Structure prediction request, 632 residues.
Amino acid sequence: MLEAIRSRSQGWIAKVILVLITVPFALFGVDSYLRNAGSKATVAEVNGNAISVQEFNKSLQDARTQQKDDPNFIQNPEVRRSILDKMITQRLLQSEVKRGGYLVTDEQLSNLIVTMPEFQGKDGTFSQDAYDKLLAANGMTPRGFEAMMRRDLLVQQLRDGIVSTAFTPDALVDVALRAKHQLREVSVATLQSDSFSDLAKVDPADVKAYYDKHQDEFRRPEQVRMQFLVLSVNNLILTTTVTDDEIKDFYQQNANKYQGDESRRASHILIAFGSQKDAASKAAAKKKALEVLAEVKKSPGKFAELAKKYSQDPGSADKGGDLGFSKRGDGMVKPFEDALFAMSPGSVSDLVETEFGYHIIKLSEVKGTAQTYDQVRNQIRGELMSQKALSKFADVAEAFSNTVYEQSASLEPAAKANHLEVQTSGWLSRDDVASFFKNNDKLATLVFSDEVLKNKRNTEAVEIAPNTLAAARVVESRPPSIKPFDEVKADIEAALKKQQAAKLALQKGEKSLEILKQGGSVSDLSWSSPLSVERSNAQSISTSVVLKAFQMDTSKLPAYAGSVALDGSYVLIKVSAVEDGVKSMNAEDKKATIARYNGALGSEYFLAYVKSLRNRAKITINNSLLGSKDTN
Prediction:
């Protein structure tokens, strides 16, 4: 089977990208079949087995290919060492596989390859074409791929043998399950730090001392005050006009858009032009149609009878002209459709001329609702104004950009030409400017450039959002400095007061906790309603409180503990009951849990095994080549 696959897969450079096509248990994916090629220099030796520079570079390149977001990450020394560590581990495991006499037959390997999802055709069976194309796309030969798969399967046999020895005693499983699914009835009482604010006192001398000691906290970056202009489609909309005729034309041309679920039942009488369709035949048809219309107008209740008598439409005449229900866009010729959807229920039209002849239409019934012209008039006006403004924006934007650049000593010319107002900002840092202009770093960089900052020139016009341009100029600037004490005094005082309030909350909380632990009570605490929670289900209680609650000694109930919240408040925690949650688990849940524990334990066994191999092995590493950015 393998030879049959190979015979149809020839002629590619052997290069593997394992992330796409490897078995789920493949561990490290190193192409050792290239290890003897290229440079004789070695990055490392494992029990005398060399890892060449070429092999190491190959693994680096594979890693770079897989990490498309940041291809330069392999220059990180830690990443390079991690890749080499994986190669060393693989060498050790391959030696153990060879020493242990592990075997993967051709039949086992071929059975695996033909069942891999990557190589299945549309019919769900192995596709030689898919196999060839995927190997070719990843620069791989069939023999190289098979060697890699065989190598990984051999290592997997070794790993499975170690993992299978993992066994978790029932007693240990029960302890773990009881811990995991235990329920604790928890309630909390929170001493909000804010409630101690009135008691917090801050000495003015402490405020000044804090300022003097923490100057870096009050360092102000370089700042500017700037003038700016913003040109957008919205500016143009305000000066754009739309006529009623344009709105009506748009409504008629897009009638389907506004029809909703409306459908109309029509009947008609057709007086056809005949086969000639010349002026004479049209005149004769019109004369006849006018005569029929007069009869219909005289006796509208006899419309069906007159349709059977006069209509020349073979499809509807026998049905009294009935055409059934129709919506806009259902295939009616436009003059007929326009006339029908302009009529009121029960009314009869005048003559309607189409390519087929003259129609007399009766609207019998209307179902559903459509949006009338009056209902959507303002909406259409807005759409047309936006369309006009968008089509005009490109030309206006180019002129705006040219004016800002060519008359760079002021924004006024561009403002006047585009009916804009020059606006002025407050003091802004570079980050503030970027944020001010919708996180536009380009414009912020221009504002703080020498050309703009020192020479007082306009920036170029920059697109800060779709169909939105902005330009700016610096009015005033100031260098980095320390904020004056008077400017930050109030903030420092508030911060110190908050710290003092948190300290008072902590003192009150710890005192209350001690009383509760000694069996006493604290009258001014407000406890929440008790909730039964698990470690993995905190419900409405914060995760940090639940974590603390499950760390508490519950040999004596109720049990109490305290915790400081992020905002400085003090949280008292009470556990009033403990319940065994394992009894609610069914046999399948327990079986799955045991499997997870055994799997985790087996993985630890294997890691310990690999560590022991490394400890016993003689490993030398050429650090000068490992750290080099180009080891070729």
